[in-house]
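Question (not urgent): is this output format expected?
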Amino acid sequence: MSTSSAGTPKPANTAFRLRWTAARRAVQLAALLLFAAPLLMAGWSLLGLTVGGEDAMATPSALPFFGSLSSSSLGGATFVDPFAALQVAAASKAPDPNLLLFALPVVVAYGLVRGRAFCGWVCPVNLVLEGVDFIRRKLNLSVKEASIPRHAKLWVAVAVLALSATLSVPVFEALSPISAVNKGLLFGSTAGLLMLAAIVVAELFWAHRVWCRSLCPLGGFYEAIGRLGRVNVKYDRDACIHCEACQKACLADPIILAPVLDERDTVVRAGDCMACGSCVDACPARALSLGLGKR
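Got this back:
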């Protein structure tokens, strides 16, 4: 960290500060392209559009990789969204062991990294909402920072499972805004489109990140296993200048940084942390870093 003649820390180099943000954007876009690639390779169109012609066309599902964020096949192995699997299990009243088995690798993978890394690095809704953040700043719109407790999404997840069991329908899968982006891009699905529109309006005019922070049941599911992750934001108390830039940049919830900023801990342990690196990029003193380990 460099300092001015008066001893005031200068902001870190912009390129350095944006390295995690740039990487996250690349991964988010790559995830969308990954699911789109089999359709395009088979000669199909996106958005559920059909290609004219009478010749037989390749089937995308026959390729080594095919699917969506709900369910995918890779080299003959099936992977299922774990929260979707729980909803189906609750709705069917007779859980399919194979379905839960297909979800296990996903749970283990995100559990080892950090549960809500899905939210920060893969979920297309987060990508959309980062665009909404940009629009709000350009329009100079002021919204509430915290309107609903962040742990509410845990109870929303429980309510979704209970409602799925009651109605015998996987409720969130029918309304998921994730499907509106992911399956909408691939297959032209309109499921969750109205919810996505409502979320965008709420983000613009009511509260900052209210969906991701407080209401998304999938985020609640990943929060529950988030503390187990090995990828964590680490804190150097000697370098910190307490400028609060990290809290302003946090996509999850600024309050999760309080234990380290108050010097009660050296690692952000909250299951809410997305390991997105936004706080790391925003820190002008390089007091935060993203790495492996609990210390």
